[in-house]
Design a protein that fits this description.
Blueprint lengths: L1 H20 L8 E2 L35 E7 L8 E10 L3 E6 L4 E4 L18 H14 L2 H4 L5 E8 L5 E8 L6 H8 L12 H6 L5 E2 L8 E2 L2 E6 L6 E5 L10 E3 L3 E4 L2 E5 L2 H8 L9 H8 L6 E7 L10 E11 L2 E6 L5 E3 L19 H6 L2 H7 L2 H4 L2 E2 L1 E3 L13 E3 L1 E2 L3 H7 L11 E2 L10 E4 L5 E4 L4 E3 L3 E5 L1
Antiparallel strand pairs: 1-7, 2-3, 3-4, 4-14, 5-13, 6-7, 8-9, 10-11, 11-12, 15-16, 16-17, 17-27, 18-26, 19-27, 20-21, 22-27, 23-24, 24-25
Length: 473
């Protein structure tokens, strides 16, 4: 009888282990149907669990750029796995975004050689995603480590049959970085954008390296996959090209091989993260930031936040430089010295016709700038906590009243701001940028030209975005 019971237990444990190893990634996918120009953002938090003490405690005090070990994977081709080194890309509140320091595998985005069998490079359907959330996740981490990995909602870019830029969401424990995440977190930080394989991967793929000895500190590197669809054809996926890793829009056929550098969110304090996401807690104080802001007065400059000014080059996010325009009861009014990108004020109607009206309150630009996810992209948690919600009044011309008043964290200048704080020549900064004023006839919107003169253009044109904000001392 005892032998029968033992045999049954063994069979049950074996079945459970098989089920765990064959688990596929979550298929919660939503097609947002949104123009990608409106969706640059940091991904949402997903399922939050409270990891056992010690599983990820080393990440609590880690700074961006630090390298820590977590989990194990075969890297030398010998017995067992070796500790995996991860680069801390972004230190959030209670969680950290990490990327493997080395290329851990070298494989196809989607297996197969016939492109007609796989005409669209969708990450949600890819074999590399199945590998990351199946074989890799199940075998690289202990149960304690798995409990510290966030199941996150991630956004991927793709193009539909009409080549419109859209996005969809998946829920993943482990994932590939997007173009935007790579530009923001990896590029311009040391030489982390250049991928180098583990010894096992190199031994198995002798010709994967490219000579890039012209880059200081780097002699050879390999290309590695990103999760977005390619920009030239839907049959390719985006990747970081080793021989010219500063370029952003390289694509590769999905059935060819490239390096795999897993990324994930590691939770080191679930309670702190959950409280912050609910707006019930503030991030740890940044004393250097507090000191810099406390000393500011009108006319001073401040580095505050980052943005990708060179959207087609992987040269990293650049600092946003602001000028202090005024101070009122410990609150500073700021304006950015440069544009933070070029966008439409409001898109055309779905049928391609021009909108009848275009006010700041209803504009696509306002919605984009004040989306909480976009604010997370621009600012660190400590910087975001300094923002003050501003009551914004927009002006109109003749019988146009400027639209409804709004409350915003980020906004753009009004014609009255230009008249109050700038001379006609000093308002120009080398590019044309939007005003929120409704000028001339409907639906035209104000803008400042290169020479500082104020005029108006149609709201669906693409124009520079010069930010304004208020922060507390």
């Amino acid at each position: 009888m005892k032998k029968i019971v033992c045999l049954l237990l063994v069979l049950i444990m074996t079945a459970a282990l098989f089920a765990a190893c064959s688990k596929t990634p979550g298929e919660a996918v939503t097609d947002s149907g949104t123009n990608q120009n409106e969706t640059k953002k940091q991904d949402d938090p997903g399922t939050i669990t409270d990891p056992p003490s010690g599983a990820a405690e080393n990440f609590a005090n880690a700074k961006n750029g630090d390298i820590l070990t977590f989990g194990s994977w075969d890297q030398d081709g010998k017995n067992g796995g070796e500790p995996v080194s991860w680069i801390v890309l972004y230190q959030g509140v209670g969680k950290a975004l990490v990327l493997s320091e080395k290329i851990l595998e070298y494989q196809c985005f989607k297996n197969g050689t016939d492109e007609d069998k796989y005409p669209r490079a969708l990450y949600k359907d890819s074999d590399v995603r199945a590998f990351l959330n199946g074989e890799f996740y199940n075998n690289a981490f202990s149960d304690e480590e798995k409990a510290a990995i966030l199941e996150a909602k991630i956004t991927s870019e793709y193009k539909d049959e009409k080549f419109n830029e859209l996005t969809y969401e998946t829920q993943d424990k482990v994932f590939l970085l997007s173009r935007d995440e790579t530009a923001r977190y990896v590029c311009g930080v040391g030489t982390y954008v250049f991928g180098y394989p583990t010894q096992r991967v190199l031994d198995e793929n002798k010709y994967m390296l490219s000579d890039i000895s012209n880059v200081p500190g780097v002699e050879e590197a390999a290309s590695w996959w990103l999760r977005d669809m390619g920009t030239e054809t839907p049959k390719t996926a985006a990747y970081v090209y080793a021989a010219s890793s500063q370029r952003r829009n390289y694509d590769e056929a999905v059935y060819n091989k490239a390096g795999v550098r897993p990324a994930m969110w590691v939770v080191y304090n679930a309670k702190e993260l959950e409280a912050y996401e609910k707006g019930e807690a503030q991030p740890k104080e940044d004393e250097a930031l507090n000191k810099a802001i406390a000393a500011l007065k009108a006319g001073d400059k401040l580095k505050f936040g980052k943005c990708d000014k060179n959207a087609y080059n992987m040269d990293g996010y650049e600092d946003i430089i602001w000028t202090v325009l005024s101070e009122d009861n410990g609150v500073l009014l700021l304006i950015s010295d440069d544009q933070t990108g070029s966008r439409q004020f409001t898109a055309k109607n779905a049928d391609g016709t021009s909108p009848d009206e275009a006010s700041w309150a209803e504009s696509d630009l306002r919605k984009y700038l004040n989306d909480p996810k976009q604010l997370d992209t621009f600012f660190s948690p400590q910087e975001k906590a300094k923002l003050v919600l501003s009551h914004v009044v927009s002006t109109g011309e003749d019988d146009r009243n400027g639209g409804a008043e709004t409350d915003d964290y980020l906004f753009i200048p009004d014609q009255k701001d230009i008249e109050q704080y700038f001379s006609s020549s000093s308002a120009g900064i080398g590019f044309k940028y939007w005003l929120r004023s409704q000028l001339m006839w409907s639906p035209r919107v104000g803008c400042v030209y290169n020479d500082g003169t104020v005029s108006s253009i149609d709201p669906y044109e693409v124009c520079g975005v010069r930010l304004m904000a208020r922060i507390k001392k």
